[in-house]
Amino acid sequence: MSGLIARLGRWRRKDTVSRFGNSQFGASRFGNSRFPNSRLDSAASAAARARQASLRRWGWAGAILGTLVALVVFAPANWLASAVAAASGQRVLLAQAQGTVWNGHAVLVLSGGPGSRDATALPGRLHWTLRPSGLGAIVRLRQECCLNGQVGLRVQAGWSRVSVQLLPQPGWTAQWPSALLGGLGTPWNTLQLGGVLRLSSPGLTLEGTAGRWLVQGRADLDILNASSPLVTLNQLGSYRLSLFSNEQGQVQIVLSTREGALQLSGDGLWGPSGVRFRGEARSGEGFEDALDNLLNIIGRRDGARSVISIG
């Protein structure tokens, strides 16, 4: 009898474990069956990977932005030199450029353009600072040999247009040795002019649109005490070349003589197709023999005068 009771107790304990330990409250129902660990681990791993990908994207964006800022801030002066050479058809060059686009210096050189062997460099170095201003920039130029203090230019660029404004200042703006023109080639390299070129302006704006340049304001280029080794005279005279806008919005060019043995006059237009100029040169009274050879070189000889034709 006691053995039967012992066997019955063991059977009840096994039944209790089977019903309540493994089946109702065991791992099969609450641990592995309804809430598997593999799904929780997968969700956590996906979230971690998403965070890492986001951090990588922000890291790349920061690196690219930093590179762009560095390129802008530390852009070399050679970039500006290349832009000036391209805009001027290789006639105005910033040689040996140093510094940055924003603050640099170079040797200013005039040349006859691509393929030309003529070039003239100004003494000293041209210094510039470039600062953003609205939709454009302001350039400040300084050169001890040739500029009257600090000269300012306001540059604005838009869709297929560019505007360059010379900020007015009292007195003359710049002066250069006349020999600088020799770098432009014929006929200046033949004349080998001496004297001084002086630029003055009460205000001038050049606006380029679709290859056409319009001028607002006025600029006067004086050739003072010009001379040439082609004549025996010490001086040829002093002359003025004026540029201003006419009623049609075109650039008018007028050449006149201020004083001297060689008399120059003429007028023309500066348009999309270039410069068209018609003028003449004559010798003053009593200087015919001294200037006869020079008149043959300046233009086409027509009696006592020499006809000058450009374009």
Automatic annotation (TrEMBL):
Its main location: membrane. It holds the Pfam family T2SSN. Keywords: Cell inner membrane, Cell membrane, Membrane, Protein transport, Transmembrane, Transmembrane helix, Transport. The chain crosses the membrane at residues 58-81. GO terms for biological process: protein secretion by the type II secretion system. It is found in: Cell inner membrane. GO terms for cellular component: plasma membrane; type II protein secretion system complex. Belongs to the GSP N family. This is Type II secretion system protein N. It comes from Caldimonas caldifontis.
